[in-house]
């Protein structure tokens, strides 16, 4: 009888505690099979973090939570591997949908406009930070973590470890989005061709300076001219690569900081103030006051027009003929095919496409024949300006999501960016978000096969790469205008000046509608009076600013190059 009672008691205890044991068993199984030593935490610290997730998730066990992100390698890993592990460890069932980037924004807009809870959390670009702050339909994560979400906020989250929080912080000082993945657009070049003795000698003889990483657009243009039509390994190659199809992705090509590289806007990191790289100006209250030069903006100013004209000229003269009919995804892998000498910028998200064994741009030992480096800048660029773009997909919780569902989704969001899993996730997708992962020994070992990606992210140069900033009051409405305007220039229907004149006018129509509607309150647009370029340039200079700049008559400045290996050494110092 006593033995029977003991067995019954044991069974009752097992029933009460078995699920917790099962959860930690699931966690240990996940850590063994998936993480191993690819973590910035020790095994004991990993288990401690997993135990916190198990305990914090208990009130939400059995819930079905839906989240969404665009389809890239990092999010595929989350959807297929991490969501399953999280569900097994916590008992919260996660459905992580993968859809197109534009579809993510559409679902987000639907939820914002209808109040219907379409998804419990979104990974959407931090380019929407100005939108989220002004419409006030996204939860302030700063307030959420301190109040309603305090009990489900990981004490080991370590916000200071994230390298992109400036991008997701609004002018009110609050954090509205938590970075999940990020990647930069960087200059890409054939390191082997640039170090070929004959190429170096021929270039020096023709241009009078050393072949190297171009610091400015004048040098980039010379290098593009030098390689286009040159025979390398028995075939003629091209000195430049781009894309020009009239397609929504053409807009990304330019909103993703092409104008900033030319010198559009004002100094300021992560974005120019009061005029940003889109050419939109804000006042001291962060209210957008104009896009056109006539209102103090810079979307159609000399720097912007120069940037578009160079894009058109280089595409025609130095890129493969097929490039003009390509979109973003079609053009991305082309440099990996072995016919391109350099590209002004390519998204580092394509790194995986450039390091596959057997490609013409990869050595037999798996090391790349190419390198990433900082993008060159145009003649209007000044020290202190941003120099390129980073895509930062970030977790966003809308206020229309019920608290309990938001809490469960927030747990999942923190799980996929946790220190336990981030190193492994970073190796899979190469979209780095944490300092601890960037500096992990496994990336030191892998760096030689990633063409300078790790060196760049460990360098002081990385702060000059940033997403769209807070000057943009409604990213979805404004971003769609760009590809149509640039498409007109790319097709030859309009000149560069006409295209940018049209773009800034269309942007101001949106700003005017927002101002009249008053939907963004005191944070919304308040358009300025119109004056000429000289008036606004004088006004800017008097206040210690730059934009809009006056036209520089000789836009072909003295070309400058640097030796890539010396550049990397200077970063390490």
From TrEMBL:
<dbReference type="InterPro" id="IPR050490">
    <property type="entry name" value="Bact_solute-bd_prot1"/>
</dbReference>
<dbReference type="InterPro" id="IPR006059">
    <property type="entry name" value="SBP"/>
</dbReference>
<keyword id="KW-1003">Cell membrane</keyword>
<protein>
    <submittedName>
        <fullName>Glycerol transport system substrate-binding protein</fullName>
    </submittedName>
</protein>
<keyword id="KW-0472">Membrane</keyword>
<keyword id="KW-0449">Lipoprotein</keyword>
<keyword id="KW-0732">Signal</keyword>
<dbReference type="InterPro" id="IPR014597">
    <property type="entry name" value="ABC_tp_sb"/>
</dbReference>
<comment type="similarity">
    <text>Belongs to the bacterial solute-binding protein 1 family.</text>
</comment>
<dbReference type="Pfam" id="PF01547">
    <property type="entry name" value="SBP_bac_1"/>
</dbReference>
<feature type="signal peptide">
    <location>
        <begin position="1"/>
        <end position="22"/>
    </location>
</feature>
<keyword id="KW-0564">Palmitate</keyword>
<keyword id="KW-0574">Periplasm</keyword>
